[in-house]
UniProtKB/TrEMBL annotation:
Keywords: Iron, Iron-sulfur, Lyase, Metal-binding. Belongs to the IlvD/Edd family. This is Dihydroxy-acid dehydratase. Residues 367-574 form the Dihydroxy-acid/6-phosphogluconate dehydratase C-terminal domain. The lineage of its organism: Bacteria, Pseudomonadati, Pseudomonadota, Alphaproteobacteria, Sphingomonadales. The keyword Iron applies. It comes from Sphingomonas jejuensis.
Length: 596
């Protein structure tokens, strides 16, 4: 292995042209026991971007895994500098963890660029920790390998698998219908979290960790390993070893994050029944990597891909089953056999995804189906547009037979449905009124959630999946069409139409919708329209503008305010607009100026 270019860390620790500063940079890194020999011998300095903490239970196991990462780095001659990244715990952060992805991104960019790091191990896991890390690695463009923390073990309750998140939405219905009491509710939900790790369902975390592997940014076969398994420790060790080699090879995110790699990830997302948050995060990563990835690619490239993975919420099983059945490589190899994978895309191990997955086999066909026997023949997202919004997505793999029979069975137009709407302004409004009989909600009602987008909430909350009122649940109606400008948990089986852009708070048409209006959704044509005459809409818009526009709660923290001023819409990744102008910083900007 030859060194492709001088290590950037030498500009800090071994710069004969600027001994004044070299001394200052060295002395403080010696103070905890590192030696001159280590810092000046041309060894790569490798960061471990530590996302685990007590505030981040999903990623907390990285505190343990980091020991094995260190051993791998050391063994290959690297020097380790571990540092904390801003915590993002999806189920802990209020008002929403969606607010923190861009903050974590900004922080990590500053660290990766401003400190003496030649490469980095990105410790990923909970939903937004993954895109935040990949966005930053793409922006700075130093060698980077992602290490997933892995999902929790399977949850069980009375002999049945209880999956993270998915069981919460089900149990909320049971509680509302009076089938369980509050203590049962908590017991049932807690049963889904039996160990360290992130959601054991195909929620956003397993999705994003799987897509990271599909993008080529983590070792093949690594995404699905449950957090407590010994294999996870081994993977940590191999990731540590490999990042040192990557630095010597100068293998950077820009060599891996190509348009082909993103298209591979989109197809894998369809096959695994991945989260509706994936288009947002992939768009964000792509924009920071300088790759064109319009939302329409999700339908064009991903819709006709079959559902192969039988994991909740689209299926039955959980994370341990996915790993035992072969994980991402088994899925990729199936897709390869239909020509659905760009096999030449490079990955962090230096080989192509085609080479990595060519011989992967399915170990359990109940969990990962063969291409010839999919759970559904077409499982990707559809992208809708119309006078209600420029774009919104719908995850077709969670449209149940019951939902299809009720809404998509009109013999004249089997892909369309229309009905009166009930509009909620934020989740508080929904929780307060969903069971209010005066709303007159029936099985034909469409539920709308607005004020939940990147500006309105701020950060975009996971609140579009709304349960029907209790009186409908007791009649067996467990899902009404839900539409909104917010997000929804990847663990939700609700066939919602979500991520609507522009949101009400950004002047979107949703702000003009009123309870009682009729809306028509045509899934076949990909349209969503409010059936209200144009002159009435114009009147409403004038009135809204005269009243100062759509109202949402004021910012409570400086970051909420800053993010609101800069953030884009979900359709284009909800990144800080303008930040994407800074690309490949390590190459384009060189080494930052000295600090003294
Ligand atoms: C329960 C909430 C999560 C963590 O499941 C959700 O954020 C997701 O998967 O999208």
């Amino acid at each position: 292995m030859s060194e492709a270019r001088p290590l950037r860390s030498r500009a800090w620790f071994d710069n004969p042209d600027n001994i004044d500063m070299t001394a200052l940079y060295l002395e403080r890194y010696l103070n905890f026991g590192l030696s001159l020999d280590e810092l000046q011998s041309g060894r790569p300095i490798i960061g471990i971007a530590q996302s685990g903490s007590d505030l981040s239970p999903c990623n907390r196991h990285h505190l343990v895994l980091a020991e094995r990462v260190r051993e791998g780095i050391r063994e290959m001659g690297g020097v380790v500098l571990e540092f904390p990244v801003h915590p993002i715990q999806e189920t802990g952060k209020r008002p929403t963890a969606g607010l923190d992805r861009n903050l974590s991104y900004l922080g990590l960019v500053e660290v990766l660029y401003g400190y003496p790091l030649d490469g980095v191990v990105l410790t990923i896991g909970c939903d937004k920790t993954t895109p935040a890390a990949l966005m930053a690695a793409a922006t700075v463009n130093i060698p980077a390998i992602a290490l997933s923390v892995g999902p929790m073990l399977n949850g069980w309750h009375k002999g049945e698998r209880t999956g993270s998140g998915t069981i919460v939405w089900k149990a909320r219905q049971q509680l509302a219908a009076g089938e369980i009491d509050k203590a049962d509710f908590i017991r049932l939900v807690a049963s889904s979290a039996p160990s360290t790790g992130y959601c054991n369902t195909m929620g956003t975390a397993t999705t994003m960790n799987s897509l990271t592997e599909a993008l080529g940014m983590s070792l093949p076969g690594s995404a699905a390993i449950p957090a407590p398994y010994r294999d996870r420790q081994e993977c940590a060790y191999h990731s540590g070893k490999r990042i040192v080699e990557m630095v010597h090879e100068d293998l950077k995110p820009s060599d891996i994050l190509t348009r082909d790699a993103f298209h591979n990830a989109i197809r894998v997302n369809s096959a695994i029944g991945g989260s509706t948050n994936a288009p947002i995060h992939l768009a964000a990563i792509a924009r920071h990597a300088g790759v064109e990835l319009p939302l329409t690619d999700w339908q064009e490239v991903g819709h006709d891909v079959p559902l192969l993975v039988n994991l909740q919420p689209a299926g039955e099983y959980l994370g341990e089953d996915f790993y035992r059945a072969g994980g991402v490589p088994a899925v990729v190899s199936q897709l390869m056999s239909a020509g659905l994978i760009h096999e030449d895309a490079r990955t962090v191990n230096g080989r192509t995804i085609g080479d990595n997955c060519a011989h992967a086999v399915i170990e359990d066909e109940a969990v990962i189906r063969r291409l010839e026997q999919p759970l559904r023949p077409r499982a990707g997202f559809i992208v809708l547009s119309g006078n209600l919004f420029n774009s919104a997505i719908m995850k077709t793999s969670v449209i149940s037979d019951e939902f299809r029979a009720r809404y998509l069975s009109d013999s004249n137009d089997p892909d369309a449905f229309e009905g009166p709407v009930v509009v909620f302004d934020g989740p508080e409004d929904y929780h307060a009124r969903i069971d209010d009989p005066s709303l007159g909600i029936t099985a034909r009602t469409l539920l709308f959630m607005r004020g939940a987008g990147p500006i309105g909430y701020p950060g975009a909350a996971e609140v579009v999946n709304m349960r029907p009122p209790a009186h409908l649940i007791t009649q067996g109606i467990t899902a009404l069409p839900c539409i909104g400008d917010g997000r929804q948990s990847g663990t939700s089986g609700s066939p919602s139409i979500l991520n609507a852009s522009p949101e009400a708070a950004a002047g979107g048409m949703l702000a003009l919708l009123r309870t009682g209006d009729h809306v028509r959704i045509d899934i076949g044509r990909g349209t969503a329209n409010i059936l209200v005459p144009d002159d009435e809409i114009a009147k409403r818009r004038d009135a809204l503008e005269a009243s100062g526009g759509y109202r949402y709660p004021p910012s409570q923290t400086p970051w909420q305010q800053i993010q609101r001023e800069r953030v884009g819409q979900l359709e284009t990744g909800a990144i800080l607009e303008g930040a994407e102008a800074f690309q490949r910083i390590a190459q384009e900007q060189g080494i930052p100026r000295d600090n003294h």
